[in-house]
Specification:
- This protein is of the alpha/beta class.
- The protein has a single domain, classed as Rossmann fold (3-Layer(aba) Sandwich).
- The chain is built from seven helices and eleven strands.
- The chain has a five-stranded mixed barrel with strand order 5-9-8-6-10.
- A hairpin with a 4-residue loop joins strand 10 and strand 11.
- The two termini are 25 Å apart.
- It binds hypoxanthine.
- Hypoxanthine binds next to strand 5, strand 9 and strand 10.
Length: 235
């Protein structure tokens, strides 16, 4: 048990897939894993451990934002000896250069947040993916014939904001889209010497207000889930 995860030691796999939403973790466990066991449900943040094509894997939710993914990823890395966390989430595109359903493999997470500075003394505002999970995802994507794009991503503390302009830091680092967790995950992994990657599906185009409808969402996210699951076979 850790402060926020009630699984016993040994009940969490070395590789964890981490969607934001607990119900998405449940969906992956029910649709893709064999012999999945619910190993923690503290605060309704579900963690399931099972096997995918014979490989033990845990899928558990991060919640939203740096504080939440910061807590869960830290406890997984330090209390459960997790080696690799792959976040699978959605993002909003800043321009029509990206399309709905595009899949992104995150090179660097860029943020104005002080999370990394105050947690670990990491002063950079662009933190790369950690370890070789990114490369394994890129290889797997090619094998599956997916057109995954490698990009920098803006990790923001803010979902709703007054100013509709693309934030300066996103322009500076050439970030075509925004989400709210990758920077916190990469900061923790960097500090702890662990592996971390983030795969995102474009769920909305901010300037045109297009978004993936509820009934399209399941299939759209399945492609990303399958990419993440197949990538774990390379660990
Ligand atoms: N902003 C931040 N996070 C997001 C968005 C967004 O527009 N869409 C999906 N995740």
């Amino acid at each position: 048990m850790s402060v926020h995860i009630s699984a016993q030691k040994g009940q969490i796999a070395k590789t964890v897939l981490m969607p934001g939403d607990p119900l998405r973790a449940k969906y992956i466990a029910e649709n893709y894993l064999s012999d999945a066991i619910l190993v923690s449900q503290t605060r309704n943040i579900f963690f399931y451990t099972g096997t995918y094509k014979g490989r033990e894997i845990t899928v558990g939710a991060s919640g939203m934002g740096f504080p939440s993914i910061g807590i869960y990823s830290y406890e997984l890395y330090t209390e459960y000896e997790v080696d690799t966390i792959i976040r699978i989430g959605t993002c909003g595109a800043y321009s029509t250069e990206l399309n709905l359903f595009d899949i992104l493999n995150v090179e660097k997470a860029v943020s104005e947040s002080t999370y990394a500075k105050f947690a670990w003394g990491i002063d950079e505002d662009a933190i790369p993916h950690q370890g070789d999970a990114f490369d394994k995802i890129a290889d797997t994507s090619e094998t599956l014939g997916l057109k995954t794009k490698a990009v920098n991503i803006h990790s923001s503390d803010i979902f709703y904001r007054l100013d509709p302009a693309v934030p300066a830091i996103a322009e500076q680092y050439n970030c075509p889209a925004v989400e709210m967790e990758a920077f916190g995950l990469f900061a923790n992994a960097k500090h702890l010497g662990k592996n971390a990657a983030t795969i995102l599906t474009v769920s909305d185009i901010i300037p045109t207000k297009e978004f993936i409808s509820a009934d399209q969402r399941e299939q759209a996210l399945r492609t990303m889930m399958e990419l993440a699951l197949e990538s774990t076979l390379k660990f």
